Amino acid sequence: MPPRLGGMKTLIVYAHPEPRSLNGSLKDLAVTTLEEAGHEVRVSDLYAMNWKAVVDAEDYGPYASSPLRVAQDSGRAFDASALTPDVAAEQEKLLWSDTIIFQFPLWWYTMPAILKGWVDRVFTFHFAYGVGEHSDTKYGERFGEGTLAGRRALLSVTTGGPESHYAARGINGPIDDLLWPIQHGILYYPGLEVLPPFVLHSTDRLTAQDYPEVAKAWQERLLTLATTEPIAFRRQNFGDYEIPALHLRPGLEPADRTGFALHIRG
């Protein structure tokens, strides 16, 4: 069930080095808009936190093996409640929240390195992956199930290029394809329901006169977080896929649909 608007707990994970940037303004507007609507809001401002973006043995303390095995070691440290305090705090925020907003610029076709480093360190084994039954009939709790199931996620993304560059025939490729590794591979994987992204194009050409219209559109999205239909990604363990091959069963694809779109229902 989607969360009630008036009682939502929202975590904003924000990744931009300049507080006076458009991304900073969108983050600030999200905080005020949601709090005025009755939400509780927490912000992880990664640059202000001086977030450590690289995984290394220090993350796992005495549970780090030699040679380092990131998956297994992160899981052992998680099981022992021995992850570093910064990582443990972010996991606690995720479990506290029922809605997570990721605010960032699209840099080199993906998220800023500091945000990817947040994912690498916070989404540990036994927390975000490697959970649930693994058998001939179920391949773990992921892609529609998992630790973060029941929560919603929204990407708020800015791009420098115009919208036409990110269209089906645009030179950068469709924006939905560029965001697929994040929306499907990072967010949906541990069970988050992913809302259609809020994308602003041509932001390096945006003027102060343009901002009120942008702000209005952003506020409208924020105030419909609880009622917006999530992207209809196919769930892994509910009949659409052959297990353990994890191939989409023949005949389920709509006519003329290929690529990433095969894995969206309807």
Structural account:
This protein has 266 residues and is an alpha/beta fold. 27% of the residues lie in helices and 13% in strands. The chain is built from 6 helices and 8 strands, in the order E-H-E-H-H-E-H-E-H-E-E-H-E-E. Strands 1, 2, 3, 4, 5 and 6 form a 6-stranded parallel β-sheet that branches. A two-stranded antiparallel ribbon has the order 7-8. The two termini are 20 Å apart. One of its GO terms (cellular component) is cytosol. This is NAD(P)H dehydrogenase (Quinone). It comes from Winogradskya consettensis. InterPro entries: Flavodoxin_fold, Flavoprotein-like_sf, NAD(P)H_dehydrogenase_qn.
Which secondary structure elements does this structure contain, and how are they paired or packed?
Elements (H helix, E strand, L loop, with lengths): L8 E6 L7 H15 L3 E6 L24 H10 L5 H12 L2 E7 L7 H10 L29 E7 L16 H14 L4 E2 L3 E3 L10 H12 L18 E2 L4 E2 L18
Parallel strand pairs: 1-2, 1-3, 3-4, 4-5, 4-6
Antiparallel strand pairs: 7-8
Helix pairs in contact: 1-6
Task: Supply the key terms.
single chain, 266 residues, Rossmann fold, six-stranded parallel beta sheet, two-stranded antiparallel ribbon, 6 helices, disordered N terminus, oxidoreductase, NAD(P)H dehydrogenase (quinone) activity
Instruction: State Rg.
Output: 19 Å
Number of spatially distinct domains? 1
> How would you sum up the major sheet?
6 strands, parallel
What fraction, in percent, of the residue positions are helical?
Answer: 25-40%
Strand content: 5-15%
Number of helices: 6
Q: What does the overall shape look like?
A: globular
Structural class: alpha/beta
Write down the CATH topology: Rossmann fold
Number of strands: 8
What distance lies between the first and last C-alpha atoms, to the nearest angstrom?
A: 20 Å
* Spans of at least 5 consecutive residues with low confidence: 1-5
At the fourth level of CATH, the homologous superfamily is Flavodoxin domain
Mind telling me the CATH class?
Answer: Alpha Beta
Instruction: Give the name of the CATH architecture.
Output: 3-Layer(aba) Sandwich
Which oligomeric state applies?
Answer: single chain
Mean pLDDT: 95
Pfam families: Flavodoxin_2 (PF02525)
Keywords: Oxidoreductase
InterPro entries: Flavodoxin_fold, Flavoprotein-like_sf, NAD(P)H_dehydrogenase_qn
Organism: Winogradskya consettensis
